[in-house]
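hiii, so i know i said id send this last week but things got crazy w the move. better late than never?? heres the sequnce for the chain we talked about at the cafe, plus the structure i predicted for it. fair warning i was half asleep when i ran it
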Amino acid sequence: METSGGQRTLAAIMFTDIVGYTSLTERDESAALRVRERHRALVRPLVEQFQGEQIDATGDESLSSFPSAVLAVDCALALQAALRDDPDLRLRVGIHIGDVVRRNGEIVGEGVNIAARIRPLADPGGICISESVWRLVRSRPHVRGLPLGAQSLKNVSEPVKVFALATGAAPAERLSRRRRLGLTLAGMAATAALAFGAYVPNRTAVLSTIAITAPRIFGNPIEQKIGFATATDDVRIAYATTGEGPPLVMVLGWATHLEDGLSSPLYDRSGWIRRNSQDRMLVRYDGRGFGLSDRDVSDFSLEARVRDLEAVVDALGLERFTLYAISAGGPTAIAYTVRHPDRVSHLVLASTSAGVYSRPPEQEERWRGMVELFRSSWDSPIVRSMMMEFLAPDADEVTRRVTSEFLKVAGDGPAVAGFFRAHFEIDTRDLARQIQVPTLVIHGREDAALPLEMGRDLASLIPGARFEILDGADHIEATTESPRIPELIDEFLAAESGGEVPRDS
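okay and structure toks below
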C-alpha cells in the first residue's frame, strides 16, 4: 500500500549490535574497526541467503528486513551459531514483525522501533523476539524459547511480551536465576538447533550459510603463502604454496579463489589440500579473471592460460615438478608439458580432456546458449544451479548451495563466459600425442560433465599413459574429492620412481 510518505508493508525486522563495542573503541580503536568490519562481512551474506535485505549498517549496528518471521529467526540462529566460538565478536539480536514504511531506501515504523528496543534485552550471543514473532515460529522443532514476560519499552505505548531464543551461547556476566535456567534450556536445545536435519524446512539454508561464512570469520587452519607473478602480457596471477617437499603444481582452470577456496567443496571439502601438503609443496594459483588474480581481462585463450602457468612456476623458481590438472585445466597442462618437457617430471590429468571437440552439434549449441546466460545472469542462483547439474548432479543441497556461492565469489559473469567461449575452441589432441613424460589419467565412470569416453580418448592419445576409472557421476568427486585420488597419485609417483616418491627440486 502506498502512503504519502512511502510504501507500507508487513515485514520481519532484525536488529543486531556488537556487545561491548563502545568500551572496545575507547581501549583500541583499530581493534574496534576490525570487529565492526567482520560484523558487516558476516551479516550481509547471511541476510541475503535467507531472502532478506540489509537496510542499514551504521556503526556497530545492522538493520535487516525479511519477508517472514521464520526466515528472520533462522537467519539469526545461523548468525549466532557461526559466532559461537568467537569471543571477540558477540552480538545481540532483536526481531519483531509489524508494519513498516519504506521511504527513500529506509524503513521506519513501529516494527522497527520494537525490534530496536527488544535487542538490548538479549544476552551476549543471544536472540530476543517479540510475542508476535514467537507465535509464528514456536511450532518449529528447532526453535526453543524462554518467556521473559511483558517488557516496558522506550517510546512504545504498551508493554511487549518478549521471548529469549536458545542459541547455545553463554553470556559473560552473572545471570539471574531465571536467566540461568533459560540458558540451561538453551544449551540443551543447542544441539537440536544445529542438528535439526530432517525437521526444519530451512535446514539447508542454515547449514550452508554457516559453511559459507564461518571460514570468512574464523579463517582457515591451513597456512598458505600467497604471492603474485606477472605473465608476459602483464596480467598479475596470484599463487599460493602450502607444505614443504617435492612440488606438485595444481591447474584448476576456472572458478578458483586462493582464500575462499580453502573450504570450497569444489576442490577441498574432504581436506585434499591438507593431505597433499603433508609431504610435498602444493602450488595452486588463480587463473586470469578469477580469484585474487587480475580480473579485468579478455584473453582466455590457451596461449594465455599457458602464460599464467609459466609465470607462476618461474616466480617460484621451480626447475622440475609434478603437474596435476583437473577439469578445464587439462589442456593448459598438456600444452605446458609439451612446451617444457624438461620441467615436468610427472603429469596427472583428472576428469579432463584434450578439448571439447567431440560434443554433438546440438549439445554444443546448448552450451553456447548457456555461456551467454552465464555472461548476463551469473549472479542468479538459478543460473549457477545449471552449472551444478554438470559439476555435481548427485550432491546434497547443502553442498550445492555452498558451491554455488563459491562460484559467484570466484569470478563474475563476463569472466566465466569468456573462459568457456575460448575453451570451446581448444583442441590439444595433437599436443597430447607429443607428451613424453609419465602420465596418469583419472576419470569418473559416470561423469556427467565429461563422459568417460573423453577420458579414455585422452589416455589413448598420450604414449604410455596409465588410465584409472573411479565410480560415480560427480565431476567434482573425480577431481579431488575421492579418497582414492591421493592414493593413486602416490602410487603413480612411487611406481614411476622406483618405489619412492620423487623429490624433484
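btw The longest strand covers residues 6-18. thought thatd interest u
miss u guys!!
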